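dumping this here so i dont lose it
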């Protein structure tokens, strides 16, 4: 397992942008898939998007495709979630997650991820 710490959450008006960061520590040279999930009040946690550790492949949920971008900075051991054109329905606690692997396509199940951050709140007002 690795240790994850999210930051960058906050409040923004609809149409605005936020960039979340996920600092990774304890990583070995074994390949990892990094993902973002979110949990809205009273709802189940849902997949947002994922990236492989070399940054060559990404995979997004349809609800955020074209608005959100996941990127990775290996030198800083940090994963980012750039969120543009935010909507009130994007309001949620956002979690960073990690698991060993290299194939990103189809990676949606949270049960496959064994490392999680504490979450960061994103609130989008209309």
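and the seq i came up w/
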């Amino acid at each position: 397992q690795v240790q994850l710490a999210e930051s960058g959450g906050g409040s923004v008006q609809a149409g605005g942008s936020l960039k979340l960061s996920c600092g990774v520590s304890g990583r070995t040279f074994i390949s990892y898939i990094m993902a973002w999930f979110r949990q809205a009040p009273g709802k189940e946690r849902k997949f947002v998007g994922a990236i492989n550790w070399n940054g060559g492949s990404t995979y997004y949920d349809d609800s955020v495709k074209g608005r959100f971008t996941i990127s990775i900075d290996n030198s800083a051991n940090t994963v980012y979630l750039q969120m543009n054109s935010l909507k009130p329905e994007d309001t949620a606690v956002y979690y960073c997650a990690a698991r060993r692997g290299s194939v990103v396509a189809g990676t949606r199940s949270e049960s496959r991820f064994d490392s999680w951050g504490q979450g960061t709140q994103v609130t989008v007002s209309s």
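Residues 14 and 87 are 5 Å apart (CA to CA).
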